[in-house]
Amino acid sequence: MHEVELGLAKAISTTLGYEETYIEKEFKLEAGFDVATLNLYPPSLQSKGSTGLAEHTDPGFFVPLIQDVNGGLQVLSHKGNWITVNIPRNTIFIGIGDHLEILTNGKYKSHIHQVILDNNEVNRISMATLHGPSLDTFVAPAPGFINDSHPPTYRGMTYKESLELNGFDEIDVQSSLTQLQMPLSL
Ligand SMILES: O=C(O)CCC(=O)C(=O)O
Ligand SMILES: [Fe+2]
């Protein structure tokens, strides 16, 4: 997975107009802090979905996710609609984490997602691994993404501090991004 991580870091650095090693260096990925979460969703006989995992974003750089049964994960589109994610067999779904959004001052978005239990007859198991910067990396909007029309949207802190702010509770991470958000001056 580290090779995938470095490949993604190179590709994203290039799309941003930076040298290939930009994100690798900014996030100190050689010492990146990674966490795995396992989720077990019970069968649900309700035809109208109940919530399996409340809406949230994930911390870190990127988040690969695998599952045993397809269905349940939804991502909020920029228009505000929930889109059901289809993850074919033997496929890894890759999401973006909060700290790429912070570094790029919102250019890359950490997607809001949730899990709905919708008339599924069997257990569903998923595993997400959150690949983050090293714990001592100070993550703030980089100067290249700040200008008069794009003032810094997040305050900076180390990755460790931002996880602590969130009580190291991955599920509650939406609050971590909103807590780092700067108040808008109108
Ligand atoms: O189970 C899923 O599809 C999503 C899990 C998730 O969002 C998470 O573990 O952060
Ligand atoms: Fe998540």
Automatic annotation (TrEMBL):
GO MF annotations, alphabetized: metal ion binding
Pfam families with a match to the protein in the record: 2OG-FeII_Oxy
Fe2OG dioxygenase domain mapped to chain residues: 32-133
InterPro entries: IPNS-like_FE2OG_OXY, IPNS-like_sf, Oxoglu/Fe-dep_dioxygenase_dom, Plant_2OG-oxidoreductases
Domain of life (superkingdom): Eukaryota
Keywords assigned by UniProt, alphabetized: Iron, Metal-binding
Protein name as annotated: Fe2OG dioxygenase domain-containing protein
Organism per entry: Gossypium lobatum
